[in-house]
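Structural prep section.
Before we set up the soaks we want a predicted structure of the protein with manganese (II) ion in place, mainly to decide which crystallisation condition to try first. Input record follows.
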Amino acid sequence: LLAMHSHIERILWSEDQISRRVSELAAEISADFGGQSPAPVVVGVATGAFLFLADLVRKIDLSIAVDFVRVESYGFGTVSNGAPTISFDLKVDVNARHVIVVEDIVDTGHTLSKVIGHLKSKGVSSVSVCTFLDKPARRKVHFQLLGEGKYYRGFECPDYFVVGYGLDFAELYRNLPYIGVLKPELYK
Ligand code: PRP
Ligand code: MN
Ligand code: MG
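Run finished without errors. Recording the tokens verbatim:
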């Protein structure tokens, strides 16, 4: 961790700040979906969402199902190629279910658009999105929630290349417990 830490220029959100914000999001979701039966299916977008998903679901007080899809668009670079593909599909049947898609970050919006279209084709009742970070400065595609879906986000992210808490550069740094800005000399 010390070696990784030296690759970080500055920390944007500490482990404590992350934990507090995740608790707030989980409380909102628990309240919003509290009256619904069956409870929603929480779908994490692998790989980036794995830590946020793990923290979030442990704080949601509902009998949710948890599943994953894998969508990839960045490969080993820092820029989305604009054509994400679904390479790993759900196990849970989401037909007529309310789904909450969990992401680590929404950047161009291509990944979420792809996931939402995919869920729509499976006949979901609604799609909500809960993303830890939102980087609106880089949005290219305006994704649309489905049904009565809601949008939850942890923080608005400035336009830096950030890593940690699930976010990677070339598959590294996902296991940093905080979110930080990677020193530019490491990817330029
Ligand atoms: C990253 C991130 C989001 C997506 C956001 O995933 O985890 O899923 O990019 O970018 P977008 O809004 O421009 O589509 P990535 O494709 O790098 O795969 P990963 O989760 O395995 O890192
Ligand atoms: Mn991802
Ligand atoms: Mg990635």
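Observations: The chain is about 20% helix and 30% strand.
Flagged for discussion at group meeting.
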